Amino acid sequence: MAKIPKLTTTLAYDRYMAGQKLVSSVDRPWRHLVLRSYLEPDEQELLEAPGLQDVTLMTLGSGAEHLERNLDGRWESADLRMGDVWFVPPVPISWRWRSISDEPLSTVHLHLERSLIDSVADQMELGGSRELSLGDAMQFHDPLIAEMLGALHRAAGDPADSRLYVDALTHALAAHLLQHYSRGRHAKAGLPPHPERLVPRRIRRVTDYIRDNLAADLAISELAAQAGLSSFHFARVFRRETGETPHQFVTRLRLEEAAKLLRATDQPVLQIALAVGFENASHFSVQFKRGYGVTPLAYRLRG
To answer: Per the database record, which ranges form the HTH araC/xylS-type domain (predicted)?
Structure first.
């Protein structure tokens, strides 16, 4: 058997997994993260895997298991159930497990780029307090992290979920990890020192920019830059001012513009989808039906 390296990349990590792959975000146009899920064997005697530089979190997609890991020559164990989260330290680890549930055993693996953690730490003005202190715990309970992992897992399996939505979730997860699990002083609370009277004007600048660039690939970082705010604070301020998340606002405007084009022109559906910023006709059709209750073609025929 080939020797296990000390470190490997997130993409190469897949070759060390024992289960059958269920979902993968590798082919999705996502930034700063990779998410994969696996249907695991009910019992695994030994699985050896190298460390990863990316921040790696795992949770259960279904079932429950008795999990053991060997870290630095010491075996430790825990019974893991739905809602539990565990952190994978950036060192080689040996694993073994057995199912303790009648349900199929599946796991969700999320890998966050270290550069994203550093970027969000800068936005939160954490200075040197950006190292996460998760490595000593075999498992930890954080309902919000578990819910975010579940939302990202669902998004990885649903082509209708947009990159802007995933982008916002990913930044929120990184901020939550730094806020609650970074070493040193806590993150500064509240908004950065931008005068409140300027905030509505900043958000209007963003909404005007969105209207003028619906067909563009709109990222949270780009919209935040238009407002002169950090990505960490932008989503919260935007929702407070507009009543919608950036993802909801962009999607609504794209659908409204598409509806106008369907009524006023005979352009093909694919052409309209691309013109208002959807990745493909299938994604557009799913989102349009969610918003208007009918497919784009049915909407056009209805007049």
So the answer is: 204-302
SS3 63: coil
The H or E element containing residue 68 is: strand 65-71
Q: Please, what's the b/e burial string for 79-90 (b: 16 or more CB within 10 A of its CB; e: otherwise)?
A: ebeeebbbbbeb
Q: What is the pLDDT of residues 147-186, one digit of tens each?
A: 999 999 999 988 776 788 899 999 999 999 988 887 654 4
Q: Are residues 33 and 90 in the same domain?
A: yes
Q: Are 93 and 205 members of one domain? A: no
pLDDT band at 194 (very low <50, low <70, confident <90, very high): very low
Per-residue pLDDT reduced to its tens digit, 3-25: 788 889 999 999 999 999 999 99
> Rounded distance, CA 163 to CA 218, Å?
9
Q: DSSP label at 105?
A: P
In a domain, 187, yes or no: no
Reduced to 3 states (helix: H, G, I; strand: E, B; else coil), residue 60 is: strand
What order do you get walking across the sheet with 65-71 strand by strand?
43-49, 93-99, 65-71, 74-80
Instruction: Kindly report whether the global pTM for this prediction surpasses the value 0.90.
Output: no
Distance CA 149, CA 38 (A): 14
The CATH number of the domain holding residue 46 is 2.60.120.10
Contacts of 243 (CB under 8 A, 6+ apart): none
Structural domain including 226 reads 196-243
| Domain assignment of residue 191, yes or no | no
CA distance 102 to 110: 25
139 & 49 share domain: yes
